[in-house]
Design brief:
By secondary structure, the chain is α/β, with parallel strands linked by helices. Helix content is 32%, strand content 24%. Bound molecules: adenosine-5'-triphosphate (ATP).
Length: 365
């Protein structure tokens, strides 16, 4: 656990960047520092590995005061990942990643093995190792940055805006992979971002800072959405927080059994639609949903991909109410498709999800 106790940083020109900050970042979890530009996020992060020395207060890692350790020794146990990855441009990916285990005293061979292992772990196997950073996409460079930090087997990782330099689609998938990796490896992470959605998605605990480096709220993300401490936090968290809070609520919602049509099977005529409902779900040979067909507009013959209407998101059985509601709202038929291990489990309607929300009375924005 990392504990900041009444930590203040006053720069030489008198700027108070962080003001009496107290918080605990639990072991094996992601703690996010979030807030507007200039609120002291980076300063707080860098005080943990003593790239910046606090003016007053203490920082403890697993009970040990970091001020009592030589800074170089402290940093060897702490991985550090920054925006744009901060790779050495004239060294290959492999050489970049090997620097950290080499600094920790591993032999060349052991450092190389470890580097290859972590590159694999972040999804950059084999050939990437020989490339130079300029031969990689922004997202791949960020992965190398994460691999380099992991290669030192750190107890703690500090990450400063690690995903903000990549485009939104790549960012989403990097975040997902990173969340999985963190859980798998049980890493203790402090992550800085100005993006509240990223904070809510990745953080087990989220510290919202206000300009002047004061802590506005320190909570689990669902609590932050449901009970913002004041107007500043409510504003910062955003207007659709009630809807976003549904991400944290999983409730049993009864599923309807759908009789799907198999891709390639003959389309039933319009008259055979169930009641007045013109929509039928199409699955492949293994029950993976493929899309919807609108019976009245089918021309007969086998149902092909060209007949499909896509556009609905899939929800996992047992997933959050937000994913179920989104599946229902985004489906052309009004029925959200629910899957279990990728196979059709049933469908759900938006009004049914909403009644569950009303019945359970959660969340309370
Ligand atoms: N070396 C320095 N000397 C004086 N003031 C500084 C110094 N470094 C940072 N500051 C000031 O301290 C405050 C906090 O800066 P910091 O970089 O920690 O904020 P931040 O929340 O990370 O900002 P951003 O999101 O814009 O990166 C700012 O007002 C900044 O101008």
């Amino acid at each position: 656990m990392i504990r900041l106790e009444g930590v203040t940083k006053r720069y030489a020109d008198g700027t108070v960047a962080v003001d009496d900050l107290t918080l605990e970042a639990p072991t094996g979890k992601i703690t996010v520092l979030v807030g507007p530009s200039g609120c002291g996020k980076t300063t707080s992060l860098r005080m943990i590995n003593r790239m910046i020395e606090p003016t007053s207060g203490r920082i403890l890692i697993d009970g040990d005061d970091t001020a009592d350790l030589p800074a170089a020794q402290l940093r060897r146990g702490i991985g550090y990942v920054i925006q744009h990855a901060g790779l050495f441009p004239h060294r290959t990916v492999l050489s970049n990643v090997m620097t950290v285990p080499r600094l920790r005293g591993r032999s060349r061979a052991a450092a190389r093995d470890r580097a290859m292992e972590v590159l694999e772990l972040v999804g950059l196997p084999g050939d990437y190792a020989r490339r130079y950073p300029s031969q990689l996409s922004g997202g791949q460079q960020q992965r190398v940055g994460v691999a380099r930090a992991l290669a030192g087997d750190p107890d703690v990782m500090l990450m400063d805006e690690p995903f903000s330099a990549v485009d939104p689609v790549v960012r989403e998938s990097l975040q997902d992979e990173f969340a999985r990796l963190q859980q798998e490896l049980g890493l203790t992470i402090v992550l800085v971002t100005h993006d509240i959605d990223e904070a809510i998605k990745l953080g087990h605990r989220v510290a919202v800072l206000r300009v002047g480096g004061r802590l506005a709220q320190f909570s689990a993300p669902d609590e932050l959405l449901a009970h913002p401490a004041d107007d500043f936090v409510a504003d910062f968290v955003g207007r659709d927080r009630g809807y976003r809070a549904l991400s944290f609520v999983s409730e049993e919602v009864p599923l309807h059994h759908e009789e799907p049509i198999r891709l390639g099977a003959d389309a039933p005529g319009p008259g055979t639609a169930d009641g007045a409902d013109p929509w039928r779900l199409v699955v492949d040979g293994e029950d993976h949903p493929q899309g919807w067909v609108h019976l009245p507009t089918l021309e007969g013959g086998p149902v092909g991909r060209a007949d499909l209407q896509l556009g609905g998101t899939l929800a996992d059985r047992g997933g959050s109410l937000r994913t179920l509601l989104d599946a229902a709202l985004s489906s052309p038929s009004g029925r959200g498709v629910v899957v279990h291990e990728g196979r059709l489990a049933g469908t759900v309607r938006a009004d049914e999800v909403v009644s569950v929300i009303q019945r359970t009375g959660r969340p309370t924005p």
